[in-house]
Amino acid sequence: MKPLWTAPMAMPVRTLAWRRDDVLEVSYHGGRALLGTDGSPAAAGSSGAPPAGDPAWCELVADGARLTLLLDGTPLCVATLDGPITAVTAGADGTKVFAGTTAGTVHALRPSLTAAQAATLLDAERRLLGTVDAGTLDRAARLYAATAGPSFAVHRIRHLQRVGAAGAGEGDAAVVAVARAAGAALHGHSSAAYEVGRALRDRGEPGEAVAYFQAATASARLRASAWYAAAECFQQVGAPAAAAVAFQQASLGGPGEEELRQLYHQARRLQEQGRPGEAADCFEVLLAWDVSYLDAQARHATCRAVPAPAEAPGSARRTPRPAALVGELADRGLLDADATRLDAYDATFYLQFENTGVTDTAKKQLESVELLHALGPVDRYRTSLDVGSGTMRYPQVLSRYGVRSFGVDLSDAGVRTCVDGRWQRRFAVADGTFLPFRTGSFDLVSCMMGTINHLSAAQRGRFFAEARRTLRPGGRLVVSAWNPDCRFQTFLSFYSPREVAELRRRLTPPGTLAGECARSGFRDVTTKSFCTFPDWLIAGSSVSGTGAVHLSRLVDLDAERTGRDPAAPSQMFMLCARR
User: Fold this and answer.
1) Which residues of the chain are under the pLDDT cut of 70?
2) Cβ(478)–Cβ(576) under 8 Å?
3) Cβ–Cβ < 8 Å for 387, 366
4) How far apart are CA 444 and CA 466, in angstroms?
5) CB atoms within 10 A of CB 278
6) Entry pTM
């Protein structure tokens, strides 16, 4: 929409009404004003003609400071004003649109079409779609672009697809044709650019789609989804370093529409289950990204108003497995930094990398829960070996359950920095593809937190062979790996961009890794997703509650997502197999 004029008011605007005597009636806190067609004050004696009423030819939608004019449900033009919009109106002839803001400004704007032009366009569309043939959609696209512009054309074609007037492939082709005819003009229209990117990607043209997805990141609403899509396109064209940067931008950008929806429904379930405190925490994470999302703000207030129930001495909240394992970790002192030196893996060893975060700890803790869930009763295991053990994290975890645990790594830097002599004696500098242990030495061999992703295919084959050799018959292998199919993959924070790009090139899909394991002679090979959410959710969930409450909430979310879809996209997956 083209700006025509602005008029300052003394206070935030409350209401606007365009009167039949060509006067705009403005009310604001503590006053009222009359403005003429050019924005100047109207004569005090202007006739008191009643307001003209809402125009029938368009719909005005205010979203914060963004004003969108819809024609038959399709965005026709957009304007961003100087503050949240409080009132809107339009003249019946469609030559002017008016909006008032909390900044106390009245804006007059000219739409790209008048009411008469809009009616002519819709009438021409009805005639055109009355007889459908192979060229109908192309003719319609040219009509839209010539009359209302390429952005309207893209959205209108999508509208025809939604109502069944055009097929997916036909619609994608028409959208791409509009974009190519418009050149770079669509890059300034975020939502239209996103739709063009989708059409190009779905047509197998990811290289051209990237520019449109990047243009769409200018919209806060679309930013996360657009960065995810751009990252996937970079992967398809063989640009892993660019994909890594785009995935990181997606994670920083917050949730897309699907993530907001899932977060809302999780919070509602908690509320309906009689867990108002947890529901309120979940609603708060959602509110941080979209305070106007459905009725989230009202539900948050309702949940916060419910007093916390008094717990009987010695009682514990019943949680479904595997969330119940969080309590076990907490009881054994494996979640609190002041009770164990395990978190020195973050607090000391990682200091050299100058870039740590709460998300690293959460991912390792989620992995611990998944490991315990995969193992079942831990007292069945007498001895274990952790390959790539770093600071002997998992040997220390398992020792709390009575397992005699050992670790190997290519470097002893983490052990020397973070653990005492007792654990140093349980550690050896060794290569996981050539283990210095006798055949059948262990009940459990683990390889955690993506260590296996640092190995080539040939090295993975030798690792599986060595793991099988050193396991007793019936012994268990557990491997935790980063998932290359995840659209919000961010890895641990201490990796440099160059290391992330190299690591991404080495990632192995769950099915491929399971096949390699099975070919090495293992049986009962399975994979399971975990950490099925982006880093923004981990950080938001960690603000309130104890470490156990935070972790339990994330485990519940994982269980809910993987319960719906066992192959749900996730940052990590766990492979389990038996000797």
Assistant:
1) 44-56, 168, 251-258, 308-323, 336-358, 539-547
2) yes
3) no
4) 13
5) 22
6) 0.56
DSSP at 205: -
Q: Please give the Cα distance from 449 to 451 (Å, whole number).
A: 6
pLDDT of residue 500: 77
pLDDT in the model for residue 433: 93
Which phi and psi angles does 16 have, rounded to 5°? -135, 145
Instruction: Sort 252 into a burial class: Cβ within 10 Å, 0-12 / 13-18 / 19+.
Output: middle
Q: Residues for the chain: how many in total?
A: 579
C-alpha distances (whole Å) from 387 to each of 351, 510, 524 are 23, 19, 21
Q: Residue holding tokens 């003009």? A: 185
Q: Amino acid identity of 303? A: C
Tokens found for residue 379: 């007292």
Q: Provide the token pair at 224.
A: 């996360």
Q: Which amino acid is at 430?
A: A
pLDDT at 166 (0 to 100): 73
3-state SS class at 486: coil
CB neighbours of 237 closer than 8 A, spacing ≥ 6? 206, 207, 210
Which residues are 572's β-sheet partners? 482, 530
Model pLDDT, residue 254:
66
Cα 272 to chain centroid distance, Å, stands at: 25
User: Measured on CA atoms in the order 363, 369, 375, 378, is the torsion positive or negative?
Assistant: positive
The pair of structure tokens assigned to 357 is 């975060």
CA 247, 253, 258: angle at the middle one, nearest 5? Answer: 90
- Residue 347 is predicted with a pLDDT of 37
Instruction: Name the token pair of 513.
Output: 């890794």
| Contacts made by residues 160-169, CB under 8 angstroms, sequence distance 24+ | 160/129, 165/129, 165/132, 166/137, 168/202
- Spatial CA neighbour of 188 closest among 212, 208, 206: 212
Locate 549 and state its tokens.
């409450």
**Are the CB atoms for 247 and 536 separated by under 8 Å?**
no
From CA 341, how far away is CA 333, in angstroms rounded?
Answer: 10
* CA nearest neighbour of 319 among 60, 548, 80, 484: 548
* pLDDT value of residue 88: 92
d(CA 149, CA 178): 10
CB 391 within 8 Å of CB 417: yes
Q: How many CB atoms lie within 10 A of CB 441?
A: 16
Terminal Cα distance for the chain, rounded = 68
Q: Is the peptide bond before 322 cis (omega within 30 degrees of 0)?
A: yes
State the Cα torsion 234-240-241-245 to the nearest 10°. Answer: 50
**3-class SS of residue 528:** strand
Are the C-beta atoms of residues 423 and 445 closer than 8 Å to each other? no
The DSSP code sequence of 514-550 is HHHHHHTT-EEEEEEEE--S-HHHHHHHTSSS-HHHH
CA 271 to chain centre: 23
